[in-house]
Amino acid sequence: MDYTIVVALEMVRAVAWLVLLASGLAIIFGMMRIINFAHGEFLMLGGYTVVISTGHGVNEWIAMLVLAPIVVGIFGVLVERLVIQRLYGRILDSLLATWGLSMLMIGGVTMIFGNSVTGVATPLGGMSIGAYQVPRYNFVLIFAAIALLLAIWAVLKFTKAGLIARATMQNPDMSEALGIPTRWVYMATFGIGSAITGFAGALLAPLTGVVPTMGVNFIAQSFITVITGGASVITGTLSAATLLGSISQGMTFLTGPVYGDAALLLAALVLLRLLPQGITGRIFKKSL
Amino acid sequence: MEKPVTRDPGFYVMVAIGLAVMFIAPVMLDLFTIMQITQYVVLSVFALSLGYIWGFGGILSFGQAAFFGLGAYTFAVASINMGSTTIPMVLAFVIPTLFGAALGYFMFYGRLSDVYLGVVTLVVALIFWKLINHTAGPEYSIGSARLGGFNGIPSIPTLHVPGDPSAWLDPGQMFQVFMGFLLVIYVALRFLIASDFGRVSISIRENETRSSLLGYDVRKHKVIVFAIGGGIAGIAGAMWATYQAFIDPNSVSMEMSAKALVWVMAGGVGTLVGPIIGCILLQWLTLQLGTVDVVNSIAVLGAIMMVLVLALPKGIVPTARSLLLGGYILWKRNQGQAISGKVVKE
């Protein structure tokens, strides 16, 4: 019984993990059709923000929940102004440019901080379920993922900004004709997507440690989740994360973490063969 | 419009240059330099594989290193087990080709769009990299070859004369054989591109819908192009393995895939010479930068990639070609004017 609870909890955590990883990417991709290859490095930047600010005596929760999103968000806006804005509509070029950015960031951070893992203490410690020890931090992750999805949903659905963003997403020319400054919408969207990515990176830092090349470990999972999910931000991310998270976590329990990743990829490949537009390309079409 | 290969003077010039390098370099240069440029030759083959599928099939693979690594590991495992290098070289072509066909089946028959294609190929390479990195223990061995995880496979046999495993090639001969490989692959690709099949794949690159409306099976063509590219990358991987006598998961890394992309981008998409020039130029540059400690070579590679996309999206060879052509036309026109001016005077 206890074991079942632990396994179920781990599965939910795996889903939450994928939701956190992919949300920022899904916003940027769903709205702007820009696939940000430096996504993993944005996560890394969030992690480093936490390491540096806690090193200077900032409270770790403030560093994670406030500083990391702000820093990475501002960085995202800068990147959009300098690079991305020249590449709208040139999907492949934007992929190549952001890949270049990703290597530039890895190299740059390595030059500044060195190529070693900096650990971040996991807050909150553990608790026991029956005979098993479970880190309390898992609940933080799950809660953060739920809160994040709810917040994105509420903003897109109920606010003026969300309405404008959705309009731009659906038909940029018409929105422009109606007087919406789509350039600024794009910039803001990229910034918000980056901020969410930074937030996710900060939350993941205690679990993985922070190292310049850490992005590589997450980029596959993030992209596969977003692509399998399809164009709609919330339903897509949630459904893909649920499906892939439980498959890979189930596989991990049965065999080990390596095959968990491989199972995730295989499941995604088969799914894309069946639903080339992603889950929300066929099912839940009208959802957000 | 591609000219028939046999009527293109550029083709003969390229082959002549290749042959000249192949026979003169080992005589002229010292051993160390020969071994250095052998590296460029191997990586040029890798660059060609991506240059072909991207430039002449419109398939942008972000994980070309998956095939490179697969070829390298196939060669390493097979040659260690067999004690010979001839059949492993063939296997290093066949297995990545089959893998490319299988992966291509999923991607192209699933009608994945460009972006998804790029990401899926990248993810395949990443997963491959992760899997190999986790094979460190002695339980992961194929025959007598231990996969070695992130430590890689050491003491891979050097290439030898087919049928006689005791006749190792010395570095000079190895360079000549590899130059031969590069030339054969270049010539084969030129003829393939000029053939009916090649023309159809170019038309698919230009307009997929129109090609399929004209009755060509777009998916089948793309799978074949992709598989051929995979096979060539596999050969390059095998050459890399036997050249270094060592192979590790870095050969499958994202950096390796990115390098191939940068070479092709820098040299020019849609040419075969471009990727080779891009490869040699940038490898030489990274080698020079590697001696400078302050600058991180990955950062430089990334910066080059960004600058290329923003400033020189067409690449060196097409840009140079259009500049030369433009210059030639201007020169012609000026001459024409000069002549007509004379006529008026008279």
From TrEMBL, chain A:
<keyword id="KW-1003">Cell membrane</keyword>
<dbReference type="GO" id="GO:0005886">
    <property type="term" value="C:plasma membrane"/>
</dbReference>
<feature type="transmembrane region" description="Helical">
    <location>
        <begin position="219"/>
        <end position="244"/>
    </location>
</feature>
<dbReference type="GO" id="GO:0006865">
    <property type="term" value="P:amino acid transport"/>
</dbReference>
<feature type="transmembrane region" description="Helical">
    <location>
        <begin position="12"/>
        <end position="35"/>
    </location>
</feature>
<feature type="transmembrane region" description="Helical">
    <location>
        <begin position="96"/>
        <end position="117"/>
    </location>
</feature>
<keyword id="KW-0813">Transport</keyword>
<dbReference type="Pfam" id="PF02653">
    <property type="entry name" value="BPD_transp_2"/>
</dbReference>
<keyword id="KW-0812">Transmembrane</keyword>
<protein>
    <submittedName>
        <fullName>Putative permease of ABC transporter</fullName>
    </submittedName>
</protein>
<feature type="transmembrane region" description="Helical">
    <location>
        <begin position="256"/>
        <end position="275"/>
    </location>
</feature>
<comment type="similarity">
    <text>Belongs to the binding-protein-dependent transport system permease family. LivHM subfamily.</text>
</comment>
<keyword id="KW-0472">Membrane</keyword>
<keyword id="KW-0029">Amino-acid transport</keyword>
<dbReference type="InterPro" id="IPR001851">
    <property type="entry name" value="ABC_transp_permease"/>
</dbReference>
<feature type="transmembrane region" description="Helical">
    <location>
        <begin position="184"/>
        <end position="207"/>
    </location>
</feature>
<keyword id="KW-1133">Transmembrane helix</keyword>
<feature type="transmembrane region" description="Helical">
    <location>
        <begin position="137"/>
        <end position="156"/>
    </location>
</feature>
<dbReference type="InterPro" id="IPR052157">
    <property type="entry name" value="BCAA_transport_permease"/>
</dbReference>
<dbReference type="GO" id="GO:0022857">
    <property type="term" value="F:transmembrane transporter activity"/>
</dbReference>
<feature type="transmembrane region" description="Helical">
    <location>
        <begin position="61"/>
        <end position="84"/>
    </location>
</feature>
From TrEMBL, chain B:
<dbReference type="GO" id="GO:0015658">
    <property type="term" value="F:branched-chain amino acid transmembrane transporter activity"/>
</dbReference>
<feature type="transmembrane region" description="Helical">
    <location>
        <begin position="87"/>
        <end position="108"/>
    </location>
</feature>
<protein>
    <submittedName>
        <fullName>ABC-type transport system permease protein II (Probable substrates urea/short chain-amides)</fullName>
    </submittedName>
</protein>
<keyword id="KW-1133">Transmembrane helix</keyword>
<dbReference type="GO" id="GO:0005886">
    <property type="term" value="C:plasma membrane"/>
</dbReference>
<keyword id="KW-0472">Membrane</keyword>
<dbReference type="InterPro" id="IPR043428">
    <property type="entry name" value="LivM-like"/>
</dbReference>
<keyword id="KW-1003">Cell membrane</keyword>
<feature type="transmembrane region" description="Helical">
    <location>
        <begin position="223"/>
        <end position="241"/>
    </location>
</feature>
<keyword id="KW-0812">Transmembrane</keyword>
<feature type="transmembrane region" description="Helical">
    <location>
        <begin position="12"/>
        <end position="33"/>
    </location>
</feature>
<feature type="transmembrane region" description="Helical">
    <location>
        <begin position="294"/>
        <end position="312"/>
    </location>
</feature>
<feature type="transmembrane region" description="Helical">
    <location>
        <begin position="40"/>
        <end position="67"/>
    </location>
</feature>
<dbReference type="InterPro" id="IPR001851">
    <property type="entry name" value="ABC_transp_permease"/>
</dbReference>
<dbReference type="Pfam" id="PF02653">
    <property type="entry name" value="BPD_transp_2"/>
</dbReference>
<feature type="transmembrane region" description="Helical">
    <location>
        <begin position="261"/>
        <end position="282"/>
    </location>
</feature>
<feature type="transmembrane region" description="Helical">
    <location>
        <begin position="115"/>
        <end position="132"/>
    </location>
</feature>
<feature type="transmembrane region" description="Helical">
    <location>
        <begin position="174"/>
        <end position="193"/>
    </location>
</feature>
